[in-house]
Specification:
By secondary structure, this protein is α+β, with helices and mostly antiparallel strands. It has one domain: B-lactam Antibiotic, Isopenicillin N Synthase, Chain (Jelly Rolls). Helices cover 33% and strands 25% of the residues. Helix 1 links the parallel strand 1 and strand 2. The longest helix is centred in the middle third of the chain and has 28 residues. The relative contact order is 0.16. The structure holds 2-oxoglutaric acid and fe (ii) ion (FE2). Fe (ii) ion binds next to loops.
Length: 315
């Protein structure tokens, strides 16, 4: 089925002022989160970000992608997919820039200086607060999942084991009403991804039943999505969904994804509480950086089930 499918992602309201652990509204949201992430691997979150910041972030993205290619390419990184990525013949509409540690002002500032040696305070002053605010949502979601699994004792370890990468994307409009591939179908490899987009839709999510849902977030809402590492850590209790971007029309789509990513040296291992006869262990413990070593080989890039190939436990 195409993106005309009437299916919709679950919508969850995080905009209540008192959404704190231990409150009745927290417990109510947490049940919805667990249900959505178990079933779809993602949901739409209503979450307040000041209107001014929302506008500023898209102004910053436009400025960034309008820079000359040579300038954008100055953001190179040893870590795969953390620097500038684009100009791929298979996905000609797509380009993306990684902002490693975007929630930390020093880090965002140093990338800003690479791109704009003359300075660009409005860029840091939109990107850093945006990433910080979205990181708070990431933490809430992860805490809720751990609580639902009765594993809150692991929360601090879990929280301390990740870094944030803000990856911002531009997809050119294909100038046609035929849907063109913006980004290949994939599952994210990290813990949790939180996506925010402008008014141009294009994201599609594959359900467990094999139907593509066209995602049409309301203005100002976010898409929260589980990555393979969280799926593995929970021994499958949360699902990591395939998703892709399909583009039509003339307008450019801008999106920003905050990725929580396991730190190098942290072994992802499902806690013993989550492994039993009904729930046999799905993956052997693995190091995320080593796994990416496989994923970014030519074979890994062709492999839709890279994590399973890399460390899946045979049934
Ligand atoms: O642009 C989007 O909405 C999706 C991007 C995405 O899936 C990714 O960067 O992993
Ligand atoms: Fe993705």
């Amino acid at each position: 089925m195409g993106s005309e499918s009437p299916l919709k992602l679950p919508q969850i309201d995080f905009s209540k002022a008192d959404l704190q652990p231990g409150t009745a509204s927290w417990d109510c949201v947490r049940v919805q989160v667990m249900e959505a992430l178990g079933k779809y691997g993602c949901f739409e979150a209503f979450y307040d970000i000041p209107l001014q910041l929302r506008k500023a972030i898209f102004d910053s993205l436009e400025q960034l992608f309008d820079l000359p290619l040579q300038t954008k390419m100055r953001n190179s990184s040893k870590k795969p997919y953390h620097g500038y990525v684009g100009q791929y013949p298979q996905v000609p509409l797509f380009e993306s820039m990684g902002i490693d540690g975007a929630n930390i002002m020093e880090k965002t500032k140093s990338l800003t200086e690479v791109l704009w040696p003359e300075g660009n305070p409005s860029f840091c002053n939109s990107v850093q607060p945006f990433a910080q605010r979205v990181a708070e949502l990431d933490i809430m979601v992860r805490r809720m999942v751990l609580e639902c699994l009765g594993l809150e004792k692991y929360f601090e370890e879990h929280e301390g084991s990740t870094n944030y990468l803000l990856r911002v994307m531009k997809y050119k409009g294909p100038q046609t009403s035929d849907a063109k591939l913006g980004l290949n179908a994939h599952t994210d490899k990290n813990i949790v991804t939180i996506l925010y987009q402008n008014q141009v839709d294009g994201l599609e999510v594959l359900t467990k039943d094999g139907e593509w849902i066209g995602v049409k977030p309301s203005e100002g809402s976010f898409i929260v999505m589980v990555g393979d590492s969280f799926h593995a850590w929970t021994n499958g209790r949360v699902y990591s969904a395939f998703h892709r971007v399909m583009m039509t029309g003339n307008e450019a789509r801008y999106s920003a994804g905050l990725f929580s990513i396991p730190k190098a040296g942290y072994t992802i291992r499902a806690p013993e509480e989550l492994v039993d006869d009904q729930h046999p262990q799905l993956y052997k413990p693995f190091d995320h950086v080593a796994f990416l070593g496989y994923y970014y080989t030519p074979a890994g890039q062709q492999d839709q089930f890279a994590l399973k190939t890399y460390c899946g436990v045979p049934e």
